[in-house]
Amino acid sequence: MCGIVAYIGPKDAAPILLEGLQRLEYRGYDSAGVVVSNKGLKLRKVKGRVADLAKVVPARFKGGLGIGHTRWATHGVPSDENAHPHLSADQRIAVVHNGIIENAGELRAKLEADGVEFLSETDTEVLAHLIAHAVDENDSLEEAVRKTLKSIVGTYGIAVIDAERPGEVVVARNGSPIVVGIGEKEMFAASDVAALVRYTRQVVHLEDGELAVLKADGFHTFASDARETAKEPLTVDWDAGHYDTGGYEHYLLKEISEQPETMTRTMSGRLDERFHVAHLGGLNMDARETRGFRRVKIIGCGSAYYSGQIGAQLIEELARIPADAEPASEFRYRNPVVDPDTLYVAISQSGETYDTLAAVQELKRKGGRVIGIVNAVGSAIAREVDGGIYLHAGPEVSVASTKAFTSTSVAFALLALHLGRVRDLSPADGRRIVEGLRRLPGQIEQILEQGEAIAELAKKYADHPSMMFVGRVRGYPVAREGAQKLKEISYVHAEAYPASELKHGPLALIGPEMPTVAIVPDDELLDKNLTTLGEIRARGGRVLMVGHREPDAKLADDVIVIPKNEIELDPILLTIPLQLLAYHAAVALGRDVDKPRNLAKSVTVE
Ligand code: F6R
Asked: Which residues are the active-site ones (predicted)?
């Protein structure tokens, strides 16, 4: 959700900012801008992509201090004027901002009454004018920013520069991430480590309410009451190579293809063949505590929530603990009953999704025990929880989640195995799951080999205006994720239903113009699923079946047959062909696969 980059040091800032913005473009891509300080502020900003911005930044755009932004519109349409950075009326202060200022309307009205003329419709411009007023009355930019932020209601990650103080950048965070990057006599800041890894691996994450002053030779961080805070730098283990397409046409295809390795990394060092258990030291829980939980409640948003549904199923089956998943965005608003005997699990690839973070904070405030399943090390959710499981899937750049989804499902299998083996899951079943997990990467390779065949099927189905996805029990979250992938990247309307619910309403939609993708694993529900296929076909509906064996030819028009694992783990494999189907449908329809319209990676606003 918007990207921020800031630089101060001996080099020219502009190329560093542009390169950083390019790496952050997956977080926002409707407009972009940079400002550098060199005897006054020099600004360029455009509606469009970072590549469009690069075209209008002249070669002589010199200056060793600058800030940049790539935007995903919240207040005001995408336009040159609404693009960040925003400047104060006297052109002295420049600000870039992620997040939403809720009282912007009120603040704007006051400023306008004082004669300030606004150039944009954004909430951010308010900040530039307020800081410009405050800087006249205060000795330091730091103090001016602090004072301004006190009048703000809402969320922000900001970077601010002052033309009259060319030796510093001030950054601050409240609900929207800011990471400081430590270089050799140069300092960086960004909303995501992706923008920094080419220059430094030493980073410091700001906490909510913190502010940092960056100078070329170092930085200081402060709590909201201006008390200086001590921060230990963290070494990031992702490098610039993780952010390249690696020869693939799209990040999405690269990330789908990486799944045998990413999944292996999620399991690495965590499976124990002797006792058939999973070692999850990051949970920070001893066996007695682990045995004490009577329920598991999983929260996450979008695809993370669907992987939570797969997780709930795994936990109920393997550990026999009642478990369910709920969208974090709903959970946080319904005043949830927080129970001391429940283990709460928050899922987030980015670790920055605002709704999930807010739900975790609400749980913690009420004394709930929360663990995280998170990909981004050191992210806000990872810092907030009591313990957790890192995915180690590497950065996910494409907006649509793929490898993080499957790694999360694997992490749930590990958690379910762990919870199960301190309860009643037998060593034999533990071994079965451990062996099944070990087989997954090789089986994914086999599914990926079917890429071309799936591309042909995608072409065949892509021109339908709408598609139905159905699955039963373990297959239902798979169907939901399949529909989600298709709609978000191909813009083809897709509905997901439990196969058992079809005849309670949605069967009315079925006909030749609405094909169904049916998830039909070889499990105890096979016959029931085949009956559903018969019902669809009887209404003239086309069926693309994804399962473990060819059905009777009358039941499906097309079939994707994938390798069989243990029934509990099959959902992980069943997801892969649906990712490929969505990807190839999006390519066939000429969509912007990695940056689908209206969406952004990391939704750091409500
Ligand atoms: C779908 C997708 C989103 C995210 C959701 C949560 O492909 O990417 O639905 O899963 O926005 O994001 P994280 O996992 O970063 O909290």
From this structure: 2 (nucleophile), 601 (for fru-6p isomerization activity)
Q: What is the pLDDT of residue 328?
A: 96
Distance in angstroms (rounded) separating the CA atoms of residues 107 and 364: 32
Task: Give the C-alpha separation, 365 to 556, whole Å.
Answer: 51
Ligand 1 binding pocket includes 307 (Cβ within 6 Å) = no
Domains 255-425 and 446-596 share a fold: yes
Give the residue from 255, 304, 602 showing the smallest Cα distance to 477. 304
**Residue 553 confidence (pLDDT):** 83
Peptide bond into 85 cis (omega under 30): yes
| Dist CA 457 CA 495 (whole Å) | 19
Q: Which of 83, 85, 62 is nearest to 11 (CA)?
A: 62
**In which band, very low, low, confident or very high, does the pLDDT at 187 lie, cut at 50, 70 and 90?**
very high
Using only C-alpha atoms, the chain has a radius of gyration, in whole angstroms, of 25
Q: Which of 190, 76, 88 is closest to 133 using CA atoms?
A: 88
CA 182 to chain centre: 25
How does residue 543 score in pLDDT terms, banded at 50, 70 and 90? very high
Identify the burial level of 272 via C-beta atoms within 10 angstroms of its C-beta, where 0-12 means exposed, 13-18 middle and 19 or more buried.
Answer: middle
Q: Compute the Cα dihedral for 577, 579, 581, 584 and give only its sign.
A: negative
Residues above pLDDT 70, as percent of the chain: 99
- In tens, the pLDDT along 105-154 reads 999 999 999 999 999 999 999 999 999 999 988 779 999 999 999 999 98
Q: pLDDT class for 245, splitting at 50, 70, 90?
A: confident
For 255-425, CATH number out of 3.40.640.10, 3.40.50.10490, 3.20.20.140, 1.10.10.10 equals 3.40.50.10490
Instruction: Give the CA distances from residue 589 to residues 45, 416, 464, 491, 563, in Å, rounded to whole numbers and listed in that order.
Output: 31, 40, 11, 9, 29
Residue extents of the structural domains in the chain: 3-238, 255-425, 446-596
d(Cα 581, Cα 299) in Å, to the nearest integer? Answer: 27
At the second CATH level, the architecture of 446-596 is: 3-Layer(aba) Sandwich (3.40)
In short, whether 488's Cβ falls inside 6 Å of ligand 1 is yes
Ligand 1 centroid to Cα of residue 547, in Å, is 26
Catalytic choice (254, 297, 564, 601):
601
Q: Is 434 in the pocket of ligand 1 (CB under 6 A)?
A: no
Using one digit for the tens of pLDDT, what is the confidence trace for 23-59?
888 776 789 999 999 999 999 999 999 999 999 999 8
- Please state which CATH class domain 3-238 belongs to: alpha beta
pLDDT at res. 287: 87
**Cβ atoms 307, 347 nearer than 8 A:** yes
The answer, yes or no, to whether any atom of ligand 1 lies below 6 A from the CB of 419, is no
Dist CA 415 CA 429 (whole Å): 14
CA distance 574 to 519: 7
Phi, psi of 301 (to 5 degrees): -120, 150
Q: Looking at residues 259-264, what average pLDDT do you find?
A: 96
Mean pLDDT of 226-233: 94
Can you tell me which atom of ligand 1 is nearest the CA of 402?
A: 7
Q: pTM for this one? A: 0.85
2 belongs to the catalytic site: yes
Determine the residue type at 555. Answer: L
How many whole angstroms separate alpha carbon 26 and alpha carbon 400? 10
- Confidence label for 1 from pLDDT (cuts 50, 70 and 90): low
Q: What is the DSSP letter of 198?
A: T
